[in-house]
Amino acid sequence: MNLTHNAPRRAIVIGGGPAGLMAAEVLAAGGVQVDVYDAMASTGRKFLLAGKGGMNITHSEDIEAFKGRYGARREQVARWLDAFTPQQVRDWIHGLGIDTFVGSSGRVFPSDMKAAPLLRAWLHRLREAGVRFHMRHRWTGWRDGRLLFTTPDGERVDEADAVVLALGGASWSRLGSDGAWVPLLRARAVEVAELVPMNCGFEVDWSEYFRERHAGAPLTTVALGIGSNDGANCAIAWRKGQFVITATGIEGSLVYALSGAIRECIARAGQVTVYLDLLPDHGAERVLEEVTRPRGSRSLSSHLQSRLGIAGVKAGLLRECLGKAEFADPLRLAHALKALPLTLLRPRPIDEAISSGGGVRFEALANTAGMLRVLPGVFVAGEMVDWEAPTGGYLLTACFGSGRGAGQGALDWLRRTQT
Asked: Are residues 35 and 169 in the same domain?
């Protein structure tokens, strides 16, 4: 640290995502000169991509239910949320001049559903506060205790009184989140858990016939439950929703919501059997009654379509996952309609995932603000830390909270170490 009593305090934030920008905002508000370094040509690339289909900022559900979305890291993430609640996230957005509304699912969106106006307003406010941005500067570690960057004009070194690292996980490498920071921190003895895909698709060994006929088909109004092939207890409650059949397997909102549990089951057992309820709005007794109802001269496929609406991809899945004997047995067929087994082999590659799990272990942090034990004055935030969450505003809210906490932690560090 080179801070003196009369010198202006200075902090470097590496990473221009939500966590990094929030840290920069807190530091600038505290009177610190902030420089943001980003490897991309413009900041907030992943933020803009997240808003492509509608910018889901946060969720309106009860705060205790909200905290429960973070699984094993509930306690740690709850500290960020207590300091910057989902309602405060909405208030903060309103302060940028952006209105929000709550959708029918409870998700919160900007009034125009777009990310770009929000980002523009935020960056304008940061620049007005004196935050300086350095684009196409890729952080590559340290040299003689100073931060090292590669730029279009060659190498650059810089140093500051506090550093916030907010480089994201390893999904969407083309937008800057490539996990290249992992070996840099491990070389400094920082404990980093392997980065793994989260909110991702999973592979299925489809037959060529099924793949050609149904890849891209949506499965609406279904439910998904999890078991495992080795008898391990991976069962969870059924969840209703929708997803899509792909050429390699399955993906979509329902799959993403359970992706952490599915991934962990595969890690333990090598693969996992999930169960599809193709008729979640029908009780098992009614399904059995309709399947066993006399069908006269109609084919079984026509009967299932007319009595239960089983057609298209749902009918294809039955044929794909059941043997002829099972399909011809009314009792077994009725059971399969409510619990069709589907074997998932592995997650899709991490670069296809919406987000990633793993990262800097909480045990490597000296405090809840995210300062690294082995690197005093260096803080980590956002998806760099070992937590994960489903989509639905939960990822973004926790990134905001983590970045805000890191910014406040760095500000407190600067105040304590000023001489």
From this structure: yes
